[in-house]
C-alpha cells in the first residue's frame, strides 16, 4: 500500500519535473499541455488494465479474485482495484454460504417422507423431491417447468386446483394405483410468497386400509353380538309374556344360556386379541414347559370331545422330548388349545386327532395338531387367520366358534418369533403346526 503511494509520488514528481523543464524550455502552455497529455495517457493505461481485469473476472465461472491475480496498479487505481477485489471476495463468500444453506435445505426436503413440490405463480413445477416424483410419476429433472395440471390429470385434483380453495386436502389415486393394489394420496396445497404454491403429498394407503379394517372389525363384532343378543332378548320377552310350562321354560333357559355363553366367548377372544396387541413382546426370561402345555391341552380336548360327541374322538398325544419354550405360558397355552379344540370341533365323531411336539434337527421345536377332519380347500388357506374368516360358517357357530381362534394363534406365534404352518386338503384332514425358533427352545432333563 505505502509502496504503491511512493511509486505514485515518484511518478508525479518526475512528471512535475518534466513539466517544469518543458515549461522553462517551450513555454508554460506547452508544458501544461504535454504534462496533461502524459497524465491522461498514464491514467487511461491504468484504467484499461483495471477494466480488463474486471472483465476477465466477470467471464470467469470461478472468480480468481481469491488467487491474487489482481494487476499491480499504482495510486488511486491500485486502491480502487483493492477495494473492488475485497468487495467481490466478500460477495463470493456470501454466495457460497447461501448456496450451501440452500443445498442443505433441499437435502432436508429430499429426506422428507412426504412429497414436496414447489409451484410458481402459474402452477409450473419449480422443484420437487423424489418422494413427490414417485407419488405422481414425475421425472424430477425433465418435468421442471412443466405445468402440474398437464402431469396430474386426476379429475378431483384438477377441480381442486381450479377451485383454488386450499383450506382442505384432496385425496387422489397415486401413480401405479390399480384395482388390486390401490395407492391413495392425500394432497394439500399451501400458498406462499407471491402467489407461489407449496404442494405436499402423503401416501395414506396404509392409513385407509387400517381404517377400512377398523370399520370391518366393528361391523363384524356388532354382527356377532347382535345375533345371540336378539335370541336372548326374544326369549326374555317370551318368558315375560307367556305362562310357559316348566319343560318349555327350561328349554328356553338352556338356549339363553348357550347364547350368553357364545357372547362371553366372543368377548373373551376379543379381550385376548386386544391384550396381545397391547402387551410388550415376550422376552426370553419366562420359560414354559411343553409337558405342562401338553397336559393342559389333553385335559381340555378330552373334555370337549366327550361333550361334543357321545363316541368322542381318537386323541393321540405324543409329547416328545421334554423341553421349555421361552415365552408367556398363558399365551402359548391359549394358542395350542385353540388348535386342538378346532381339531375336535371340526373332526367328525370317532375321527383321529394326533398332537405332537418334535425337536427338529436344526434346534427348532414344532408343535403340530393333525386331524382326519373334512380338510380345507386351498383357496381358503391364505385367509384362515383373518379375524372372523370362516370356511364353514354354520359349523363354526354350531360348535361355539367365534372366528377369532386362528387370528389369536397367528398373533401368539408372531409374538414368539414362531411360524404358523397350515397344510390341508379337502377330504384328507388338516395339519396346523407352530414352529418355534431354536433360540426359544431348550431341552429339559426333568419333565416339569
Ligand atoms: P372358528 O372359531 O370359526 O373356528 P378359527 O379362527 O379358529 O375360527 O378358524 C377359522 C376357520 O378355519 C374356521 O371357521 C373353520 O372353517 C376353519 N378351520 C379351522 N380349523 C379347522 C380344522 N381343524 N379343520 C377344518 N377347518 C378348520
Which SSEs are present, and which pair or pack?
Blueprint: H1 2-26, H2 28-59, H3 75-111, E1 115-119, E2 125-128, H4 130-136, H5 148-151, H6 155-163, E3 170-173, E4 184-192, E5 196-203, H7 205-241, H8 246-278, E6 287-289, H9 290-308, E7 314-318, E8 323-326, H10 329-346, E9 352-359, E10 365-371, H11 393-398, H12 405-415, E11 419-425, E12 429-436, E13 441-443
Parallel strand pairs: 7-9
Antiparallel strand pairs: 1-2, 1-5, 3-4, 4-5, 6-8, 8-13, 9-10, 10-12, 11-12
Helix pairs in contact: 1-2, 7-8, 8-12, 9-10, 10-12
Describe, in plain words, how this protein is organized in 3D.
The chain is an alpha+beta fold and 448 residues long. It folds into four domains: 2-105, no CATH class; 113-203, Beta-Lactamase (2-Layer Sandwich); 209-278, Orthogonal Bundle (Helix Hairpins); 281-448, 2-Layer Sandwich (Heat Shock Protein 90), CATH 3.30.565. It has twelve helices and 13 strands. It has helices at residues 2-26, 28-59, 75-111, 130-136, 148-151, 155-163, 205-241, 246-278, 290-308, 329-346, 393-398, 405-415, and strands at residues 115-119, 125-128, 170-173, 184-192, 196-203, 287-289, 314-318, 323-326, 352-359, 365-371, 419-425, 429-436, 441-443. It has a five-stranded antiparallel sheet with strand order 2-1-5-4-3, sandwiched between helices. It has a five-stranded mixed sheet with strand order 7-9-10-12-11. α7 (205-241) runs antiparallel to α8 (246-278), α8 packs parallel to α12 and α10 (329-346) packs antiparallel against α12 (405-415). The mean pLDDT is 90.
